[in-house]
Amino acid sequence: MATMPETFLITGAGTGIGEACARRLAADGANLVLVGRRREPLERVAADTGALVLVGDAACPSTWDSFIEQIRQRFGGLNALLACAGGHGLGSATETSPESWQAALRSNLDSAFYSARACLPLLIERRGSIVLLGSIASLAAGPEVCGYTTAKHALLGLNRSLARDYGPLGVRVNCVCPGWVRTPMADEEMQPLMAHYAEDLDAAYARVTAEVPLRRPALPEEIASLCCFLISSEASIITGATLVADGGSSVVDVPTLAYTRLGGA
Asked: What single-letter DSSP state applies at residue 138?
């Protein structure tokens, strides 16, 4: 008897890392469910992958009742959730309005929580897994990104809580924390540098990775490969883990950078 393809749900699937995950999994013959707020990019990815498109806000709990029913009817179940939805959260604490604070938590934390909560019954049935997309902002604070940093730090708590509570039911949960990745959102973040230094996008990325050991940003496909590894059988003993994929930036001892520059490295 032929084995049925596995089914994977990806939030934030229209661009960036979510899109790269979709294309990687589609190449392996998986059934895909793409969730996002904008129909056009989802439809573009679905045209190449044959995915089911579900348009809606992953951070809205009422959205998920219909979504889960459609997934069950179409595919019978779910093998993994890749929670890639996210957004900005710019400004220091005194510069962050209540609306900006709530938006940062909603796009980066609520979206992951409500996605996981809705998908867990299906994942328990198939002893599936969850990958949460964190950031090096889950581990350290950049300048004037209070909302984003707080929400991404909170994802690590969600990761550990889910792994502890649902591991006994066979569900694995892990978090991937990239550094700079060449995505549309990161391209936007390069704009102030490009304007200030009168340089192009490549030069801006080179500037922000100048002290990163690998001296470059990641490609979305590189992060997608890690996400796909974590939901695969090859990672069957891994849960509650935080996988950092930042080109080595988090291992740099910042106070010693002045000495490195003396050596010309």
From this structure: G
Task: Establish whether 148 is a catalytic residue.
Answer: yes
Quote the CA–CA distance of 178 and 262 in Å, as a whole number: 29
The CATH code for residues 7-181+218-247 is: 3.40.50.720
**Its pTM surpasses 0.90:** yes
**pLDDT tens profile 180-201:** 999 998 999 999 999 999 999 9
The residues, any chain, with a CB within 8 Å of residue 85's CB and separated by 6 or more, are: 11, 12, 18, 35, 36, 58, 59, 107, 111, 112, 115
The one catalytic residue among 114, 148, 166, 205: 148
Distance CA 83, CA 37 (A): 14
- Secondary structure (3-state) at 175: strand
pLDDT of 74-119, one tens digit each? 999 999 999 999 888 889 999 999 999 999 999 999 999 999 999 9
Per-domain boundaries in the chain:
7-181+218-247, 184-217
> Which residues are within 8 A (CB) of 6 and not within 5 positions of it... i.e. 6 or more apart?
30, 31, 79, 80
